[in-house]
Request: fold
Amino acid sequence: TLNSGVFVVRAINNEVVPEFLHYVLHSHWFDLFVRNVLTGSTIKHLNQEKFYKFTFEAPDVPTQKKIVEVLESIDAVIDKTRDVVEKYRRIKSGLLQRLMQSDRQVPIATLGTIVSGSTPKTSEEKYWNGTNVWLTPADLSGMTMPFISDSERHLTDSGVKKATRSLLPANSVIISNRAPVGYCAVVTVPFSYNQGCKAIKCNDGVDSLYLCYFLSTQKANLERVSSGTTFLELPKKELARFLVSIPEDETEQRDIANQVLAADEKIQGELDYLEKLENIKTGLVKDLLSGTVDVGVLKK
Reply:
């Protein structure tokens, strides 16, 4: 059984293999067709009457089966790769738990110096388009690895003096304190930043990558100590007294952080491979369904 939001599509003869039709309905041709025939303003609908007007090329059944076999083989590799990504995400999750198991809890103020940032006057050209990295929360969004080395906008030396007085040293931790709270990264170059971020210059004996990974698990807790009506903002005093679970031995900190980093690198490598596979599949669907590529050549 099904409701009004679902179609069931069945071939009325044996000229179309169901699995072949499945790939056709996932093709860019069907996407283009649907975009042009959807109705409704708030909720878009594909009417059955319009759906019946969709046409596509269907080779003979043996060829359809060969095409399905090729596409299913790459789908199997894609599924396996996704499983590997999930496996390493679980491993990373377990490793991150170790960051919260230390009996030693100390406020951030004892681990480093917290420095606020600002935005130089945008109408003053002398502050902008220099060579100095100037980070904002937008630069930190969507990151999949814990390191950052560049920004969308850059400051001149005069701009840096207005923003943070001087460049913060490489290997400091940056964290967004508003819009939203909790993005963080280790900056691998000297840098400056705006009022949406704060930087932590780590003391000797504090591994910046460990601190970054710990803070990445604390977004909800950081939001709880933030305030504001239009948007939440994390005050410097709250960040300073925020407790961090951290081993006293820097070598132990570094060992844990490097294990998490290894999992991150594995995840990123598999995600890059997955993107490559999906691009290959997209090209194959287009070429095979259009007959541009002979499936017999691929099978060999």
Summary: The longest strand covers residues 128-135.
